[in-house]
Amino acid sequence: MVGPLYDLIANPLGAIRLTFEKAVAAGSDPGTFTGKDWGVCDLFREFLFEDGNISQVPVLNSTNIQWIKPNTLVKFRGMVQDMLGNEFYIGIQKDEGGWRTNKFTDSTQFPVSSSETPPWERHLLYCIPVPGLNPWAEVCSNSHKQCTNLTSPQREKRQREDNADFEAMDVQVLELNDDDFPTTKKMREDGPLSSHPEGSSPSSKIDSERNSLPCLVKVYDSAECDLKLNDVFEFVGVLTFDSEPPVEEGNNDELMGIFCDDASGHLPPSKVPRLHCLAHRKLAVQDFLTFSVAEEPKPQLVKEIRAALLDHLTAILGNDGVAAHFMLLHLLSMVHSRVDSLAVGKFSLNLTSFSKESASVFCNHLNFTLRNLLPYTQSMSLTVDYLNTVSLTPKKDYEINRLRVGDLQLAEGTHMTIDETKLEPGMLNPSGVDNARLLKNLMEFQNVEYDFEFYKMEMKADVQLLIISEGKSNILPADTVLPFRPTCLSSYKNIDGENINLWRWYLTSLRSLPYSIDSAMQKTLEDELVAARQADRTIGSLEFSRWLTMGRLMSISYGETSLSHEHWQMVKELESLRRERL
Known about the structure:
The chain has 582 residues and is α/β, with parallel strands linked by helices. The chain is 34% helix and 19% strand. Among the domains are: 12-131 and 211-288, CATH 2.40.50.140; 513-582. The chain is built from 15 helices and 20 strands. The strands form seven sheets. A five-stranded mixed barrel has the order 1-4-6-8-7. A five-stranded parallel β-sheet has the order 13-16-19-12-20. Strands 2-3 form a two-stranded antiparallel ribbon. A hairpin with a 2-residue loop joins β2 and β3. α3 (135-141) crosses α4, α4 (157-173) packs across α12 and α7 (299-316) packs across α8. The protein is elongated, with a radius of gyration of 27 Å. The model is unreliable at 146-211 and 243-262 (pLDDT under 50).
């Protein structure tokens, strides 16, 4: 088979022009090409995905943008932070040499001489690196995904070697001296600390440094409803650094003006690269794993993974087994449906009884663990000054015609840890009161309010929320409140690459398992909920909903898709132990 005449990675525009010329030579009417790609996207999809060349396409990020040549094929993984509407451009034009196309470019490469064809349009997306994307997930997203058979008792040695590199990188990126925490230093002087990671610090505020390289993505021939705010996508397309197109004498200024990017006028190409999209796909958290599962794992193996992860969480939480069980359910939670204003499936957790000193020790290890287990994590240190000054909600800036990012504009599946132990008595200004309301709204309804100046709009969210506090949080009413009862200092065990990969797969894949309750079990639940209500009149529908959510999470934690009597009994026992602490 004869290969393509143009290198699709080094010279994608050559392939685009060639396919256009072939389509015209075959008798196709260029006037009918609007909304179509005359076979270009099929050519690139076959090359990238069917022929397996996607891993050879360079990834566009802040570290390598200076080395990537313009007008070459790149891929970019990011979150849609703003949708800038549509841009009109001259898709085709005719000159002495025949029909030409300007599609997948920023400006016309040929003299504009007439307006006999109507302008075409494309969608403009302002995308940023996924907020809170952890280093291991960023590395994995740039690597070719491996396929691993989890039913095999012996894992591949090569996989362990590869993941050792990921773990080494994690420690370097998260490196922080424990002496930065005075209580940790004091404990070390009083007695040896248990084994802990060398780099293990939660961020004291939302980390915005990963948003250092935004990208203006221009999407063609795709329904606008397929592209939503805050969704995470992988885009593959032509990278351009074109500056404003010069207007030559004799050219039609009105036609050239169609190329002027009004919506992105405040996004200079020297700072915000343009990517003309040829292929895109929406990503979920499991797309950031290092491998995919070759076949359905056996239930026994899932139980072994669960037990090992639970042991690790127990060690991190100072041998508090009850807290470890609730933490496991919390990490498996997600919003799987909505009934009126209720976000079904969310399971926020408030661990109480912390002091500033104990929080600095336990949160240190816990946040390090979460950053190594989950693709996207954020941490927030809640203080009066933070609430009074921060911008939590995204706001529309009409001077630059763009949505300014807020700390609560997060991708679906993000985990956020909020530390309330540093919150001192103080006066909240109007902005602080509004920010507290926004946090409460996210906690209760999984909604984030967007400020468009003349009106406000609530956007649906799916964020796992963990609150660390001294007493029960008055600002953030979590679904479950659990007093923390450690019996020893937090202990961090070294994790080999094999286990960390299994745990990552477990937490990202099992949360989306299908789930149902059979008719016999439904009758049992109805009887027990009626009995519980008769015994305690204060129990309401929200408490019933929380118990049912725990039943679902307990079942999927074992890899099972329906609630059994055994797992329901485990939920009741766990809830009984929690109530004893209250």
